[in-house]
Amino acid sequence: MARVEFRNVVKEYHDEKRGTFTAVAGSNFVIEDKEFVVFVGPSGCGKTTSLRMIAGLERQSSGDIIIGDRIVNELHPKDRDIAMVFQDYALYPHMTIKENLSFGLKNLKRPKAEIEKKVMDASNILGLTEMLDRKPRELSGGQRQRVAVGRAIVRDPQVFLFDEPLSNLDAKLRIQMRVELSELHKRLGATIVYVTHDQVEAMTLGERIVVMNKGRIQQIASPGVLYNEPQNMFVAGFIGSPAMNFMDARIENGNVHIEGASFALTDAMVKGLRAYEGKEVVLGIRPEHIYGEEFAEKMNVSKENSMKSNVQVIENLGAETLLYFRVGARMVTARVNPETEARIGQMMTFVFDRNKLHFFDPATEERIL
Ligand code: ATP
């Protein structure tokens, strides 16, 4: 069993400038055996620190870390049965690829035949057999990245830890490596913990995602749940691109009012928002759920919830077009069909899909429904 668990794990750093700084503020989670879990969040949110604590490269200030069925708090990194793949690959430049792959096992004084077999197996899986005699500098970025993964595979660890392994690759290669990593996970059936600041990478790779901000876990869920039911405004704004639109709103008599428009709520929404009758809320809607009039007609979306506004900015991205318009002081984005005809300054009708509205408490920023 290769599950990983954090129980109230805190990490504080002490330095002269900041005094005591809490990088991880009491994390709790369970990563199940064979699961692919991604830690995601903006720079400085504590994701790398969390990963390094699993590896044993950082010691937590308090709390327990469990790998498999052991509390590993006191265990040295080499005794934790994990393998970590770093952002910069950390390959030995003077060694051949084969030597790089065998190095860890040689250090462990494993029999020669076993090392040979494991290196060959890993090279086959990763398509490295042709380059075993080359040095790292003779490989492309993507190939080097594969060697770094290969070095982890030969160790046959309980848990793989990845720290932003694709960040040094160009956009096309990142997409290719993303697919390869997903396939590798299926093939190895291993537990993987993966750190990235890129929400698209997190959404495509993670079976579950741990969203972090300022040292605190914001939500742990599958990509679908994060997208459809974000726990708070941070998660709602972080997951999805372009980001969810937020508007100041007020609930009154079964309607939600924003500046310049008023939308009828569904019965379920009226019920869920009962405590907010007559009060301010934040209305959220993703750009892909605001439609042009024609598209709404075609898709049979009720045009009851629509508003008129002038198009302020148009961004044509080829497969889709982003239209920006104002609601009060806020700029709102609609992601529309590229065939939608629009000119800057044109008055357009924007249809808000009423089944896709999100509501947040303006004080706590938590999801209401
Ligand atoms: P990034 O995406 O930029 O790597 P991150 O989410 O991985 O960010 P961490 O590296 O975990 O963030 O750092 C979390 C916080 O802890 C940051 O504010 C960082 O400055 C601080 N921190 C990390 N290591 C140390 C250290 N050795 N001493 C003091 N503060 C540290």
From TrEMBL:
Keywords: ATP-binding, Nucleotide-binding, Transport
InterPro entries with a match to the protein in the record: AAA+_ATPase (IPR003593), ABC_transporter-like_ATP-bd (IPR003439), ABC_transporter-like_CS (IPR017871), ABC_transpr_MalK-like (IPR015855), ABC_transpr_MalK/UgpC-like (IPR047641), Mo/tungstate-bd_C_term_dom (IPR008995), NA-bd_OB-fold (IPR012340), OB_MalK-like (IPR040582)
Coiled-coil residue windows: none
Limits of the ABC transporter domain: 4-239
Biological processes, Gene Ontology terms: carbohydrate transport
SMART domains: AAA
Source species, domain of life: Bacteria
GO cellular component entries: ATP-binding cassette (ABC) transporter complex, substrate-binding subunit-containing
Gene3D superfamilies: 2.40.50.100, Nucleic acid-binding proteins (2.40.50.140), P-loop containing nucleotide triphosphate hydrolases (3.40.50.300)
A Gene Ontology molecular function term of the record: ATP binding
Pfam families: ABC_tran, OB_MalK, TOBE
UniProt protein name: Sugar ABC transporter ATP-binding protein
Organism: Paenibacillus flagellatus
